[in-house]
């Protein structure tokens, strides 16, 4: 493998880096890391380590930390460097810059300043997860990390309920169980989904099933590592109040309210909260 050290055109070069396996980096990405005048990295230690693995010396070139907590002045400095004729390689800690990282403001400011912006495509956790999920990829909505506030999360899931696209969500491993319960209640227990963990790494794992099945599976499971949750689109079948009441009446005659709600929510692919409220109304408890 030959790494080319050739002059790069001035501008901001967004470089995708591996999400796990170091060998997933592209030859073009290595060329840019070897040739750029400036390295701007979400984590400079990670960037230095990646370059060392592939035999690229930083030398006397500046390595500037640029992440979501960086002051606006750091971004302005990078844009100014590029405007004055330098090539700036921008790398996230892992994956493609601008996918859930601070790349977008840098690109926006560079373009506004008349600075050229380039992309060196490559690894992406979103695309890797979509590939192995088994869910439809013709229409996809990337949501990134959901808000932490309960009200904002509830509003987001309500907005996503009618969206006919595969949803891609990044989440902290500590909140995966909570996320799956929220999605099951808002989108329907029968929606197909997948939980992808540690993609391209040693302990890679992909769990597939319905939201109800995955919510149950992860309720008692400690999760570690990088997580991507995907939810397939619904069936698009409209279920009226009469259909729901009829299904609930039959299910309630066979068992408890809890069992009836679970059965009907799965059969009609409806949010459990909606079915539970309808059951309470039928039983005269609301």
Beta-strand percentage?
A: 15-25%
> Structural class of the helix and strand makeup?
alpha/beta
Low-confidence stretches: none
Largest sheet: 5 strands, parallel
At the first level of CATH, the class of the largest domain is Alpha Beta
- State the CATH topology of the largest domain: Cobalt-precorrin-4 Transmethylase, domain 1
* CATH architecture identity of the largest domain: 3-Layer(aba) Sandwich
Domains, number: 3
How many beta strands in the DSSP annotation?
10
Shape: elongated
**CATH homologous superfamily of the largest domain, by name?**
Tetrapyrrole methylase, N-terminal domain
Task: Please render the helix and strand layout as text.
Blueprint: E1 11-15, H1 27-35, E2 38-41, H2 44-53, E3 63-65, H3 72-83, E4 87-91, H4 103-112, E5 117-120, H5 125-133, E6 140-144, H6 150-160, E7 166-171, H7 176-187, E8 192-197, E9 205-210, H8 211-219, E10 227-231, H9 241-252, H10 257-268, H11 272-282
Parallel strand pairs: 1-4, 1-5, 2-3, 2-4, 6-7
Antiparallel strand pairs: 7-10, 8-9, 8-10
Helix pairs in contact: 3-4, 6-7, 7-8, 9-10, 9-11, 10-11
